[in-house]
Amino acid sequence: MSPSSGTSLRVALLGGSFNPPHVGHLMAAHYVRATQEVDEVWLMPTFRHPFGKVSAPFEHRVRMCERMCEDAAGWLKTSPVEREVGKDGRTVDTLDFLQARHPGHRFSLVIGSDILKDLPHWKDFERIQRLARVVVLYRAGYPAPGTVGPPLAEVSSTDIRERLARGEPPTDLVPQVVLAYAREHHLYAF
Ligand code: ATP
């Protein structure tokens, strides 16, 4: 994605491992675009996971996200910005970086309700809330106060990796173009 520093957009950021991206991410992005008054949704794969989670290589996760965005009419994009931010993968640093690069944009930060338990460990959450509107989606199985919308799909990258490891291609949970990429590049021993 090429940065557009002169424009002013309302951008919702969906950060995560995307290891691999799945229909739950896609539904979350569509839901946010449809209901949260945003112009674009940017998928932001983690470069360095703040809590040390190990994933497929960053470049492959970026490519898989890009594949998933291809069908959306320009509003769904993949941002590899976390590689540029460097540091240790803290969301507050990414938001500072993005705000400096796109001073006209207004950012929202989208998280699933499964993440709420981690928030006390996030660096400077108060500053995050000043830099971005935080939108908490109701991820199926994780009810919590303050979420928006109905429960979203019960699907996770963990389940998908487990299915792949058992030799069961998760064709119902991963966009075809993403699964084809994973197969082509022998990700997840697939
Ligand atoms: P893993 O199983 O490897 O932990 P994951 O499926 O939770 O992965 P991530 O890439 O870590 O996917 O998630 C990125 C963001 O998308 C997080 O904020 C997460 O809460 C949200 N998210 C992922 N799947 C869903 C879903 N099915 N419904 C709603 N939100 C989701």
Any overview of this molecule?
The protein is α/β, with parallel strands linked by helices and 190 residues long. It has a single domain, classed as Rossmann fold. The chain contains 7 helices and 6 strands, in the order βαβαβααβαββαα. It has a 6-stranded parallel beta sheet with strand order 3-2-1-4-5-6. Helix 1 links the parallel strand 1 and strand 2. Helix 2 packs antiparallel against helix 7. The model has no long low-confidence stretch (mean pLDDT 93). The protein binds adenosine-5'-triphosphate. Adenosine-5'-triphosphate binds next to strand 1, helix 1, strand 4, strand 5 and helix 6.
Describe the protein's topology:
Layout: E1 10-16, H1 23-35, E2 40-45, H2 58-69, E3 76-78, H3 81-85, H4 91-101, E4 106-112, H5 125-131, E5 133-139, E6 148-152, H6 157-165, H7 176-184
Parallel strand pairs: 1-2, 1-4, 2-3, 4-5, 5-6
Helix pairs in contact: 2-7, 4-5
The protein binds adenosine-5'-triphosphate.
Adenosine-5'-triphosphate is lined by residues 14, 16-19, 24-25, 28, 111-112, 114-115, 137, 139, 152-153, 155-158.
Q: Can you give keywords for this protein?
A:
190 residues; alpha/beta; globular; Rossmann fold; 18% strand; 6-stranded parallel beta sheet; binds adenosine-5'-triphosphate; 35% helix
